[in-house]
Structures are given as structure tokens and as C-alpha cells.
Amino acid sequence: MSALLITGAGGYVGRHLTKKLLEENYKVIALLKNSKEVACEGAVNYCLDKYTVQDVFEKEKIDGVIHLATCYGRGGESIAEIASSNTVFPLTVLRESIKNKVRFFINTDTILSPMISEYSLSKNQFKQWLNFYKTKVLTLNLRIDHFYGPFDNPNKFIAFILKELSERKPFINLTEGKQKRDFVYIDDLVAAYLVLIQNALDGHFDTGKVYNFDVVSGIKTSIRKVVEMLKEITGNTDTQLNFGAIPLRDGEIPFYFTDPASLNQLGWHAKINLEDGFKKIVDLEQKARRK
Length: 291
Description:
By secondary structure, this protein is of the alpha/beta class. The protein has a single domain (3-290), classed as Rossmann fold. 39% of the residues lie in helices and 20% in strands. It is built from 9 helices and 13 strands. The strands form 4 sheets. Strands 3-2-1-4-5-6-11 form a 7-stranded parallel beta sheet, with helices on both faces. Helix 3 (79-99) packs parallel to helix 4 (118-132) and helix 7 crosses helix 9 (274-290). The longest helix is centred in the first third of the chain and has 21 residues, at 79-99. The N and C termini lie far apart (39 Å).
């Protein structure tokens, strides 16, 4: 049984990935931020307010690491906290992975330009460290545009819009919405990790380079169309969508160049289209509210 360490296991993607890996009979070592986070049932849980990263690697024989932990800076965190979470912490995990001869390290990256925010800058800085250590450990880097799913954090774009629509707010202020993004449902995102894990364990990659994969469907949709689709699917006829009320962020670009070909070659394809994914979320969340 292969043992996999997941940083950020208590987060949205972490919980979904942990559940799936356990179903696939992997041993999951869940690294949690602190004891307040909900432990992952079935996993071996370590809280960072009780154990150091070094403690975990000393106690467990780890075959691979999936780095998910991140700080978006949406909760008022300082620049130091953002840099520590997105650069210093994963670098500590990476160094321990190398020291303990872990077979592979999977990084969860962002598609954003480094100059968009402190978050994107810190994520891109860690990517430089991945390149620095690429000869020391097999490194796979997943670039994600947008992912979405039911019961996500309302700080996320799709979850926020759904929350506002479900509460039938009088209006939602938005940018013009002309920028296009590629949205991937949570189940498809989890499937991408599983494909890479299996290929890494099967020896299909070589140490010495950073393998980059875009976890995208290949279909870009404008933000305006996404919001209008969500409004229609929720049946909301009350909320006014104020497109253009908010200016674009400095450095915001119309779309990012992405290509799913590298993942497609490994057998991964996004299976859930945007409309079906949105309907699935609305159905699950409405059923939960009726209980």
C-alpha cells in the first residue's frame, strides 16, 4: 500500500482527494493546519500545532507528497503569513521530501500571473524552488485555472455568486465579465491527481525536470456567461447583475493560455461540462437546505 502525504488535507480539495484516495486503498497521511481543523476520517492525521513537518517524515514512510495547502490572502492575512504559507512552508516539505527520498512531489500551482496579487507572487516564487531542486525529486506541477463544486467556501467566486443568488440579494456588483476562464468540476480535478499519482508510482516520469500539467477542460467561458448561467439555473429572477460596477484588478488579462494535452495523453479528460456541474451543485445545495 502506497503512503501519500497531503498538505492542506483539511481544505476543500484536500477533503475530496483524501476521501477518493482512501477509497482507492492508499494510505493517506493528512497534514492539518491545527487541531481546530476537522480530522480526515480514515487518514493518519497530523496537526501542525502539535507536530513539525520533520516529525511527520520521521514517523511515517512516505511514498509521495501532494501539496495542496495554500493561503489566498482573503482573510486579512499579512504578507508575511501569505509568503510563509505559500513559499516557506512548502519549501520545508519539499526539503524533507528530498531528505527522506520520497518518490514524487506534486505541487498545486496557480494559472495567475505573479504580478496579480501577493498570493500569485508567493505561489510563483515556490515554483522557482521546484525548478532549483528538480534533479533531487520527481516533480509534477498542476496549474489550475478555476475549480468549483458543491459546498465550497463562499470566498470562492462560484460559491459566492451562488450564495448571493440563493439569498436573492437585490443586486450583485461585478466586473464587465468579458474575461474568459476555464472551469473544472471538483470530481474532475480529483481525477487528475489520481492519474498523476498512478503514473508517478508506475515510473512513467523521470527526475530532472518539472513536469507541468494544465488541469483544464479546454473550454473557456466568459465570467458574464457563467454568472448569467448560474442565475438561470437557480431560477432567480430578482437579483440584478451589475456588470461593470467593479473595475478589473491591475494586471488582469482576458484569458490565460492553457492546454489539457499533457493530461489528456495520460488518459485524463474533464467529464463534467459547466452547465451539468452547476446544476449538480444547485441540486445538492438546495436539497441540503431543505433538510
